[in-house]
Structure to design on (917 residues):
């Protein structure tokens, strides 16, 4: 018998089925993989529709007044759905709401089976960033004429169901069957739907696609390591001239004068070898990635690879997915690249397989397992970043993350297809190694370097390097977490499990028994020590100075000495156990490997704890900061000179280093970064910007702004609310609003969210509604959303110019001098004979303003307006230095708020009018 799927969407006056009513019903019937009929009707709810719902759905009170009541169509809908399988995008809303309404009108409750396309999409499209219906429609080019109208939403959900079904049928049967085993966590009868599809697949011969293989029950994408073949014969010379470059480009690339200058500069620097370091400032959007990759293809080899360090995942993706494939079509000697990240970024197949062998009660855990089963048929790298997950801190990711090559067991069935071994094989054949600043900085803390030494290192987005070096140098010891972890290990009999790994060696068994006692004592003593340290701090400051530490109680002193001994004992016992495990790992069963993996995690954590503990209590030079954090009772330790490059272990491993970024000078100060990096004599080369700021950009300031520093928080928030509301009313295009305070951001968000939502405008805010990447993606897909951001949104936002044309800067981005770390840094600079405000705060603020402006203008055709609501830019003594940091041809205008709104509209509309003439 043919199965009928009733794909349903309803629009309602609200989300409460007891008080709210349906205003539109849409249903699309699907049979045998085809849409066979459609039914849709408006419904009179007999109650007012709010402005917000009217804007969202386009359904007005006037329109539904002429529609039938639900009582009039209830029987029709009930009969339409009879003997079907109910399908909805978020069935937990549509199904019970509709059932409730049918019951209210005297019909029986819905008892038909149901399927949820949200859950199916989450499992079968694991690399998607968003599972909202409109975003999926965009991703898969499904026709979606009227989002948030029931007929259109039902139509696109039906198309989505067919897309999901085709995807499932393209998977190996072994993958689908494993998903079915886990699918009892899925909504309604979704598992039954998968079982039916699997039965259908069994009737067809199971032909495994040629790029897949099945290893120990897991279907995986085959991995191929392309061999690097050096072109010894007919070796081409580097194309220095415009003519030579155009010949190479073959019309595939456009010659750009500024980019060509960058290429020649990069080639000459690494070829002539006259200097160790050089800084290059090149405007965003100039094509700087191509600008250094092309010349390096004439120099880099697998023996002497180019190392590229960048800060953003986006740039890494762009390099791999766009720049390298385009270049390799033209180059005589192709570039072969590999990405290097820490081991925990990659999945360990053996550990993942172990999770499938145990029962899980947690729905989210099972969903991650199902999504990974699908992803393994698609990924060649095993890199978690492909999954766009918002929370890699979930237990599941901790349990399946890789722990390094030395933890692998050769007799394990997944040894030959391990992702880190594949990466290592690629590394040996690659002449370009792409990494991130954090991985590079962590080389300082590794016993064995993971990046090769090389003549060539390029640090892209170099203006982020300071912050990353400082962050990586910050060490933490969370005593509550340590205590909880020891309790967990005891409650789950983990120490006893570790003892079973050493059945043949009583000495090791005894060592683990002692280790359990030492770990327990350590946790208790750390709690006691924290209480003693807390006596040294005040409510105003949790920083601990050397003088304060010298006044620590005798009990505290004794605890420090005792904890030092306990760490030595614990590490000695753990090392004894680990040496035994390493020698016997090949004999471990799968279950024992799992126990050992847990031991490795704990042992590494123990080593890190000891390092931090020693640093906190022994390093007291002025460059080090020690402070406590009440949340979780944490000891923090940071090196203020972490950004001095010659003091790092990795700096000497690279013969030459080129630092490149969009903003590497502050105003006329070309030594801002070299001084902070401890290389003050390094020269900065500036590639002239190709942008005409006089024509492409405007900076407006209100002539009637408020005195920010003299205004109460609430009054300031209301002022910002008023400005943003007026601008949003006039401009139906995306607006980015940058804040310096999360408190102010939240207040303005709560003032504006409902009024703008009532007008159909989405307000996205950092810290509310998802990760930074998720917010940016939603902003990118929106036609008129507002995005409120702070911190990283100032400098790391990569949005095309046509998306971002208006930016509101609420306040000059000075760091708060009262923040403990900022205060300590300022004190340290004063000790070095520097003026913290003029030599640190002002240049840093100038840089951030330049970076913010760089988000607006990214190509020769972009137009953008920055509205700065802080008059200190014009009136303060340091204002001139800030103004000089911006492009000198950028028009800066003062005007009243109504005039600014009007001028913004005129300026941004002017090119459209010109195009239409």
């Amino acid at each position: 018998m043919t199965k009928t799927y009733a794909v349903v969407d309803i629009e309602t006056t609200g989300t409460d089925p007891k008080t709210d009513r349906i205003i539109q019903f849409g249903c699309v019937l699907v049979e045998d993989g085809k849409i066979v009929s459609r039914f849709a009707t408006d419904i009179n709810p007999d109650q007012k529709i709010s402005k917000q719902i009217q804007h969202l759905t386009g359904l007005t009170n006037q329109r539904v007044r002429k529609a039938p009541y639900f009582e009039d169509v209830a029987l029709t809908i009930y009969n339409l759905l009879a003997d079907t399988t109910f399908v909805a995008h978020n069935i937990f809303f549509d199904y019970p709401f509709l059932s409730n309404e049918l019951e209210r009108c005297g019909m029986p409750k819905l008892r038909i089976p149901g399927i949820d396309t949200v859950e199916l999409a989450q499992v079968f499209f694991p690399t998607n960033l968003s599972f909202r219906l409109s975003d999926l429609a965009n991703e898969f080019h499904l026709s979606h004429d009227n989002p948030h109208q029931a007929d259109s939403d039902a139509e696109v959900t039906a198309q989505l169901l067919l897309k999901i079904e085709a995807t499932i049928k393209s998977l190996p049967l072994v993958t689908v069957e494993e998903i079915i085993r886990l699918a009892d966590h899925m909504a309604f009868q979704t598992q039954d739907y998968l079982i039916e599809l699997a039965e259908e697949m069994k009737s067809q011969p199971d032909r495994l696609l040629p790029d897949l293989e099945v290893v120990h029950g897991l279907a995986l994408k085959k991995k191929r390591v392309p061999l690097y073949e050096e072109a010894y014969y007919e070796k081409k010379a580097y194309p220095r001239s415009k003519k030579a470059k155009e010949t190479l480009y073959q019309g595939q690339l456009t010659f750009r004068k500024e980019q060509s200058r960058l290429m020649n500069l990069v080639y000459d620097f690494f070829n002539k070898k006259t200097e160790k370091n050089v800084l290059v400032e090149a405007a965003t959007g100039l094509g700087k990635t191509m600008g250094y990759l092309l010349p390096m293809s004439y120099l880099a080899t697998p023996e002497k690879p180019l190392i590229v360090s960048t800060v953003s995942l986006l740039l890494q993706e762009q390099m791999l997915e766009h720049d390298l494939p385009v270049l390799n079509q033209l180059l005589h000697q192709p570039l072969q690249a590999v990405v290097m990240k820490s081991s925990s970024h990659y999945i360990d197949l053996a550990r993942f397989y172990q999770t499938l062998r145990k029962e899980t009660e947690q729905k989210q855990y099972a969903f991650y397992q199902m999504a990974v089963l699908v992803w393994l048929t698609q990924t060649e790298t095993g890199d978690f970043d492909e999954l766009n997950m918002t929370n890699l801190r979930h237990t599941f990711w901790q349990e399946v993350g890789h722990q390094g090559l030395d933890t692998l067991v050769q007799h394990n069935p997944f040894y030959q297809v391990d992702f880190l071994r594949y990466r290592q094989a690629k590394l040996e054949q690659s002449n370009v190694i792409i990494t991130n600043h954090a991985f590079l900085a962590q080389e300082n803390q590794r016993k064995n370097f993971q990046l090769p030494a090389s003549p060539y290192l390029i640090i892209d987005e170099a203006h982020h390097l300071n912050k990353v070096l400082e962050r990586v140098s910050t060490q933490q010891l969370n005593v509550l977490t340590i205590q909880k972890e020891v309790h967990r290990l005891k409650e789950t009999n983990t120490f006893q499990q570790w003892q079973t790994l050493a059945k043949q060696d009583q000495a090791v068994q005894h060592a683990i028994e002692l280790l359990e006692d030492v770990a327990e004592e350590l946790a208790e003593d750390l709690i006691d020590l924290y209480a003693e340290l807390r006596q040294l701090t005040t409510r105003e400051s949790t920083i601990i100075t050397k003088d304060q530490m010298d006044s620590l109680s005798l009990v505290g002193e004794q605890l420090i000495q005792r904890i030092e001994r306990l760490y030595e004992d614990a590490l000695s016992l753990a090392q004894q156990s680990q040496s035994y495990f390493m020698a016997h790992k090949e004999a471990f069963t799968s279950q024992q490997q799992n126990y050992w993996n847990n031991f490795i995690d704990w042992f590494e954590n123990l080593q890190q704890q000891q390092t931090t503990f020693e640093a906190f209590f022994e390093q007291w030079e002025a460059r080090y900061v020690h402070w406590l954090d009440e949340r979780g009772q944490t000891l923090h330790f940071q090196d203020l000179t972490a950004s001095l490059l010659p003091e790092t272990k990795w700096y000497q491993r690279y013969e030459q280093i080129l630092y490149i970024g969009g903003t590497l000078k502050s105003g006329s100060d070309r030594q801002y970064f070299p001084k902070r990096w401890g290389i003050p004599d390094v020269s900065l080369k500036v590639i002239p910007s190709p942008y005409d700021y006089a024509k492409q950009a405007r900076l407006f300031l209100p002539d009637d702004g408020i005195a920010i520093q003299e205004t109460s928080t609430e009054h300031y928030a209301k002022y910002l609310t008023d400005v943003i509301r007026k601008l949003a009313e006039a401009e139906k295009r995306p607006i980015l609003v940058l804040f310096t305070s999360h408190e102010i951001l939240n207040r303005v968000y709560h003032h504006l969210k409902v009024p703008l939502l009532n007008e159909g405008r989405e307000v996205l805010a950092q810290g509310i509604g998802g990760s930074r990447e998720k917010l940016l993606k939603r902003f990118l897909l929106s036609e008129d959303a507002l995005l409120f951001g702070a911190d990283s949104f100032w400098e790391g936002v990569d949005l095309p110019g046509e998306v971002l044309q208006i930016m509101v800067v609420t306040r000059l981005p000075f760091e708060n001098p009262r923040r403990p770390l900022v205060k300590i840094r300022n004190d340290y600079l004063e000790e070095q004979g520097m003026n913290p405000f003029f030599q640190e705060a002002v240049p840093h603020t100038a840089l951030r303003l330049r970076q913010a402006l760089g988000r607006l203008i990214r190509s020769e055709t972009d137009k953008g307006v920055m509205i700065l609501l802080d008059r200190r830019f014009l009136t303060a003594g340091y204002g001139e230095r800030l103004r000089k940091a911006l492009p000198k041809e950028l028009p800066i205008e003062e005007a009243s708020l109504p005039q600014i709104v009007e001028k913004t509209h005129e300026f941004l509309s002017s090119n459209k009018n010109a195009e239409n003439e």
